[in-house]
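Much of our argument rests on the idea that a fold can be written as discrete symbols. This step matters because it turns folding into a mapping between discrete strings. The record that follows shows the chain in one-letter code together with its fold in token form.
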Amino acid sequence: MSKFSRRRFQISGQKGTAIDMARGRLVLVSAFFVFCCIIVVARAADVSIIQGALSPVGEGKVYSASSDKQAKLSRADIVDRNGVLLARSLKTASLYVDPALVKEPKKLAKDLVSVFPDLSYGDVLQKVQSKKRFVWIKRNITPEDHSKILYLGNPSLDFKEEERRIYPQGSLTAHMVGVSGVDGQGLSGIEKSFDKLLDETDEELKLSLDVRLQHILKREISATMKNFNAKGAAGVVMDVDSGEVLASVSLPDFDPHLYGEAKGNQKFNRVSLGVYELGSSFKLFSTAAFLEHEKTSMGERFDVRQPIKHGRFKIRDYHPEKRVLTLPEVFIHSSNIGSAMMGQRLGSKKIQDFYKDLGLMSAPSFEIGEVGRPIVPDPWRDINTMTASFGHGIAVSPLQLTKAAASIVNGGIVVNPTLVLDSNSSVKRDDKNSIRVVSEKTSHRMKQLLRLAVTQGTGGNADVEGYLVGGKTGTAEKPSAGGYNRNKLISSFLGFFPMNKPKYAVFIMVDEPKGNKASYGYATGGWVGAPTVGKVISSMVSLLGLPAEDGDTDIEHSLVRYVKTKQQIQKERSYADH
């Protein structure tokens, strides 16, 4: 036997046994780690391949709509005309559960409801016991809630990265900007109208809205609505040359982040979707039509001492002057009788054609889907010609009315309302290729009358010191069963400034205001809408840095000779009595 063989034989004793045991333990530990690696690989394959292929379409499919969304670009931003952010998509975590891994469903449901109190215990319990391998618990959760879920340490819960639409201005621009759903699809407003564009591009969409003017408009309308205990209200600020909507407010409104909790009247867009009989504001249109087609003078007289009878109908004045009025006096004192006489002189065809040219007889073209169709008489009879001359029997949206009025005061060129800012909007208007609705002369006359309605007539509460404000009041009783309800009014004011060369139109409408002590119990357009417009304009001139105007102008004084003063009227009546 060799020397080496003898040494090997000698180790086979007690030491050899120890070595064999160590070798066995090493093999066992190695096998354990290999087994663990096999389990990890198998689990990864199960989650990423097998479950993804076998899970059903819909709520339980991990890589369905959400996976497709991840492959796309983020939804584009929406900004106002100055670049202020109105809507943006942010990455958020969404929570789901794998029911197959749930060990204590009741405890898990209780824990989840403690983190999300808005969830129903029964609904959550049902989800965590589902036979599916993927069930949504809560989409787009906050970082704080994300942390709370991680602290639970439940292996059946996991997260998926998604996008949530954030609206930094909250309810301020809710009706026009609109909202998008949890899966990123547009549900209303610009979000819906431009859904595909916003989803496929990362270039921001710029709107004509000015957030600063939105704040002013909403502040003043909210205060008026509260002071007069009104049901609702709406307001528009528009550029009369371009038709750009600079501000638009509909109240009550809603928080776009809580769209599902909003009530129907909160979601309803009173500016563009709601249509209303807006009363004497329509005298702006019938008077413009009369001046344009009858080629009359401002000295034209109308005997409004007696109501007009037409069949079973009787047309009266709200505050009758009971005297012969000149054309400017008919306008500034808002005489229904005088306006109805103008309508009679024009005839049905002329006034209908004029209203059509202004876009008052059909739904306006606008960039959002929430647009109302006007209500017009059908068939149109002679009585409708008279009542439509002072705004009864025809219903339009505040947006539609403002657009038509802008087309009168801007020199007579038809404009269309727009919400999306055109990159070429700085280009000057080409009047030669535009549609003209009235002559420049008629437009000038109407600007004079609008200014007179503020300085001498029913719109005095809209005046702003140092600036030439023009406008027209509107008060209409709301239709009800069997006629009109005198206790339910739509009160409004349509204002313009600066009247030398109008740039801005401001319209405010209040639904069912109730008179108060400050208004001496009145709830008409002159007491409700006019002062609100005045406050909006006062804030606008400060914000925009518009210089004060010289009041000694043709707009201010040229028609005064056609308007009798209170002293003259009292003197004439006193002489007649004797």
Remarks:
- The chain has two domains: 67-207, 214-571.
